[in-house]
């Protein structure tokens, strides 16, 4: 059973800094496929304030980031 004090490395066998760095690098590549690859097919995005915007899956992540990159060519993650 996990506890709140358990690190991502202990719980999932990954270093959370590596996960964040991978997502940052994917965003900075401006390749929506690289960003979507950071999410599983079972990824769930729940938006309580706007439930109709909630979704499941990396395909929607791909669609969202494709649109975002088209509109924001200078987007950078740090």
Brief summary:
With 78 residues, this protein is mainly α.
What does this structure look like?
There is one protein chain. By secondary structure, the protein is mainly α. It is built from four helices and two strands. It has a two-stranded antiparallel sheet with strand order 1-2. It is globular. It starts with 7 loop residues before the first helix and ends in a 7-residue tail after the last helix. The model has no long low-confidence stretch (mean pLDDT 91).
Layout of helices and strands:
Blueprint: H1 8-12, H2 16-29, H3 32-36, E1 44-45, E2 55-56, H4 58-71
Antiparallel strand pairs: 1-2
Distance between the termini: 34 Å
Report the sheet with the most strands, covering strand number, pairing sense and barrel closure: 2 strands, antiparallel
How many individual β-strands?
Answer: 2
Give the % helix. 40-55%
Shape: globular
The neighbouring-strand order within the major sheet is 1-2
- Mean pLDDT score, rounded? 91
Give the uncertain stretches in residue-range form: none
What would you call the structural class?
mainly alpha
């Amino acid at each position: 059973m996990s506890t709140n004090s358990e690190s991502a490395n202990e719980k999932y066998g990954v270093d959370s800094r590596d996960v964040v760095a991978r997502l940052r690098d994917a965003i900075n590549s401006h390749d929506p496929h690289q960003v979507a690859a950071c999410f599983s097919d079972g990824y769930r995005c729940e938006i309580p304030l706007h439930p109709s915007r909630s979704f499941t899956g990396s395909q929607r992540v791909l669609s969202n980031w494709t649109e975002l990159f088209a509109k924001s060519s200078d987007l950078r993650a740090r």
